[in-house]
Amino acid sequence: MANVLHMNGSLEETSYAMNSLLQRKGILRTLPITKKTVAELMCNSRFPEGRLAMADLGCASGPNTLLLVSEMIKVVHKLYGELGQDCPELQIFLNDLPGNDFNHVFTSIQGFKENMKKEMGAQAFIAGVPGSFYDRLFPTHSLHFIHSSYSLQWRSQVPQGLEENKGNIYLASSSPPCVLEAYYRQFQVDISSFLKFRAQELVTGGRMVLTLPGRRGEGSSEKECCYIWELMSIALKQMTSEGLIDQQKLDSFNLPMYMPSAMEVEVEVQKQGSFAIEHLELWDMNWDAYEGEVMSLPAGDGGYQLSKCMEAVFGPVIAHHFDSSREIIDEVFRRYGLLLSDWMAKESPTLVSLTVSLTKRH
């Protein structure tokens, strides 16, 4: 997956930069937790080297990346100002897989740094770190704070043992129990690696704030939370029946992701043993990213906008697996948008998210 997975780059109509309002709302929703965690880190830790190192794992590209960086800088600068102390040098690492559009991120950094220095005199050193966060990324005890938003749902690989999930592309109402078990096993392997490597990279007392899509309960009864992926499989099956997509390709396609419950996350954190959970919560966000926004959209456009958001995220994975042309991908998401619009017109579906704040014990 490290060689395949990436968000759509550039500033085109289907790019992640132009279609990540939903993720932005998630970052803003959890910002109080992030600020509180950073403030506690500042109050409970000493930085004799005069350096504070932070990392955003799965940063993607576009405005959301530097939004988070900006807020972290503001928190640190404000706290040190209130203490009458000089702000430490801020070292900020932006991590994502190698296919991420780092060029777009880098072209924005210089102007961003100049604005930060002009607004508050803050000096920040920002660098990109390509690689999978299921491997080591940083030197031992080199980081003080780690953040990740809507990235940890991705698995390091498609789980083994999904042969009986034909016709589905993720967990669905018709998926047998063995499929759920396969996804859960892969989640366990990946989250264990993630926690182990972050424990090596963080200083003692270092903090993490992680947000990812989740689900409310345990077991197969929660498959209904994944209905949005069933709609995508319907669009793909329509095109298969018309000969636009190969049937064998569809039968072998499963999304490399898993949305855990709060209990599943808590169990894995306790099992790994390096972190204490300071805060854990589930919360809802409407799948319609434009809900509550000042701008108004024509009736039914919520599904179209959500389809574009999904294409920005999942388009590269689908294009790679099906070896599809631009025209086929456009048609997949056109049909998907129609299905989403119908669904959203009848219901007000929500994305269940999970946010956890952790402290490294030792």
Automatic annotation (TrEMBL):
One of its GO terms (biological process) is methylation. Pfam families: Methyltransf_7. Keywords: Magnesium, Metal-binding, Methyltransferase, Transferase. It comes from the Eukaryota. One of its GO terms (molecular function) is metal ion binding. This is Uncharacterized protein.
